[in-house]
Amino acid sequence: xxxxxxxxxxxxxxxxxxxxxxxxxxxxxxxxxxxxxxxxxxxxxxxxxxxxxxxxxxxxxxxxxxxxxxxxxxxxxxxxxxxxxxxxxxxxxxxxxxxxxxxxxxxxxxxxxxxxxxxxxxxxxxxxxxxxxxxxxxxxxxxxxxxxxxxxxxxxxxxxxxxxxxxxxxxxxxxxxxxxxxxxxxxxxxxxxxxxxxxxxxxxxxxxxxxxxxxxxxxxxxxxxxxxxxxxxxxxxxxxxxxxxxxxxxxxxxxxxxxxxxxxxxxxxxxxxxxxxxxxxxxxxxxxxxxxxxxxxxxxxxxxxxxxxxxxxxxxxxxxxxxxxxxxxxxxxxxxxxxxxxxxxxxxxxxxxxxxxxxxxxxxxxxxxxxxxxxxxxxxxxxxxxxxxxxxxxxxxxxxxxxxxxxxxxxxxxxxxxxxxxxxxxxxxxxxxxxxxxxxxxxxxxxxxxxxxxxxxxxxxxxx
Length: 464
Fold this sequence. Notes:
The chain has helices spanning 15-26, 42-47, 49-68, 83-107, 161-164, 181-192, 212-225, 280-283, 319-333, 362-368, 383-387, 416-428, 433-437, 447-457; strands at residues 3-11, 31-35, 111-114, 117-119, 124-127, 130-139, 143-145, 158-159, 173-177, 196-200, 227-230, 233-241, 244-251, 258-262, 264-267, 271-273, 306-308, 347-349, 354-359, 372-378, 394-400, 406-413. The chain has 464 residues and is α/β, with parallel strands linked by helices.
C-alpha cells in the first residue's frame, strides 16, 4: 500500500488524457496518468483511429495496384494479398505510436500509474491497493462499443470495431450493422480486400448528422465500389452458427421479417461513455440521461476538484475534440484561460474519397431559419485531381447571405480531411467566403477546389 500526492491525476491515457498530461507537465504541474492497458494511447491508438487508418491506407494501395495502376500506365501482374503482412504493418504502426507516447511521458516527467483507476473521494484516486492524492482529478476514460440488444459480440464471428481489425482471413460476406463512420471505414477495408459487404442502417440515410447532399453522393460512390446498402432496416437478431452468422431483419417502420446470412457481422452502431468502473456514484458525480458526465464550461463536475473531458462528456466523440479539451483544461488548472468553439470541430471519414465537414449543414441552417448562400465546385474541374485520377466529389461552402461569414463547409473528395483544415482556420477567425476566395492558392493543388467553392458563393467560379 502506497500513497503519493500530485497536482493532477488523469484517469485514462487516450488522446484527451495523455495530451492533457503533457500540457499540465509543461505548465509545471506534477502530473500522473492512470492507465490499465499495457500500452498508452487509449482506444484511438490501440484499437481505433490509428490501426484502422493503417489498414485503410494499406488496403487502398492494394486495390490501386490490383485495379487502377493500369489506368495510369503502370502494368503490374500477380498482385497478391498478404493479410498477415498487412496486419503486421498495422501492429508496427500502433507500437511505434504508443512507444512515442511513453517517450513523451518520460521527457515530461509524467508518472504512469498502471492499473484501473477509481475515485476514492476527498481528492483521492485508487489504483489497485494504492491510493494517490491530487488537487485536481481528470476523468478521460473515453468510450466503449455500444451493444445491440439480443446480439452477443464474440469478436470472432460477431465483432466490434476491435475484432474487425483482427480478422485472420477475408470474410466472403461481411455484414455491417450501422452506416456511420466506423462501419463505412471498416466495411471499405474488407471490401477492398475481397469481401462482399452489406451495410444495414436503421435510418433512411447513411452518415447521420452529415450534410445530406454529401451523404447521398457518398452512397452512390460506395455502391459503385461494390458496397450494398439496406437502409430503413433494423437487425432484430444475429446468431453465430457453425458456418457463419444468421441475421433477422425487419423494416424500420415495421413489416415482414426476413433472414440474411453472413460470414462475419460487424456491430458499429456507435459508442457510449466508459464510466461504469470509476465509482462515480459513490462520490456523487452527476450524470446526464445518456450516461455522460455533466461538466460546466471549465470541465468541472459537480464534485469539487473532479473534471472530465473527451468521450465521457457531451459533444462529438472525436480524438481531436478530446485533445483540445485536454489542453484547455490543463491551461485553466494552471491559472490561464482557454476556449473551444464546438461548432468548429471538424469531422472526417477516411474512406475513398474522404469526407470532411465543419460547421453547420444546410439542413441545420434551414431548421434555424438562417438565410445562406451555397458555393459548390467539383473535383472533376480541378487539374490536380485529374492528374491524380481522383475526380469524384466536390467542395461545398455555406455562407451567411447577409454578412458572407462562412457557416459551414462539406467536402467529399481526395484528401478531404486535409483540405478542411483551411476552412476550419478561416472560420476560427470569422472569415467570409470572400476572404478565402481572395487568398492566393498554389497551382496545381486540390486546395484550389476550396477557393473555387468560395468564389462560387458569389456566383463567380473561374474554372466551370
